[in-house]
Fold this sequence. Notes:
Elements: E1 2-7, E2 19-24, E3 38-40, E4 47-53, E5 56-59, E6 65-67, E7 73-77, E8 81-89, E9 95-101, E10 114-116, E11 118-123, E12 126-134, E13 140-150, E14 157-159, E15 163-172, E16 196-197, E17 206-207
Parallel strand pairs: 3-14, 6-15, 7-15
Antiparallel strand pairs: 1-2, 4-5, 4-8, 8-12, 9-10, 9-13, 11-12, 13-15, 16-17
Amino acid sequence: VQIRLALGATECGGARYGEVEAYRLNLFTPSDNGLCFSAPFNTNSEFISKVKIDGMTNATVNNYYSDYTNSHKESVNSRGTFDVEVEVSEFQILDRVSVYIDWDNNNQFSSSEAYSLEIDRYEQDKVIFSKSMVAGPSFGDKKMRIVLGRMGTYSCGPQLYGEVEVYTLSVLPLQNGGHGYHSFSPSPMLEGNLSLYPNPTSGLLSVK
């Protein structure tokens, strides 16, 4: 939407005195995924062109705000590591990329849920930001907001240039050993001979 402010002048044509200023108002429907509002003032320059979250890859278009929570979901193990890569086109020297993950599902982002990505490499006219991260301990779907902004990023509110995209990170119990949660079933020979206490528990479990 184009907006023109005219002082001492008509909407078109010249005027002897006064001033005319023109602005552009970008209208879009915000996401209904429950998160706080976030979008840039302008996307005429730098934008997110590709996102990789472990095995998931999404080539994206230049947009103010894109909600991929239903169409793009990546599964990771609880307390397991996963890699995030964000490809930026038309990179500017003051651009920054951050990831915000709502680990506790309260539709807000605390300082412990914010992660700054670093420049990893350059590929032709693209700049790749990346970071290896560790999943939280709680299971289930988590909303993951990726923000590209100039001179810094914010979890909520307007960004100076750039783009905002939201994905779903599905945190699963760790099944194959390692540090984290995993489930098991006793063999038939041991059934009836095991004593587990305290039961139920979310902490230390003793087996006798």
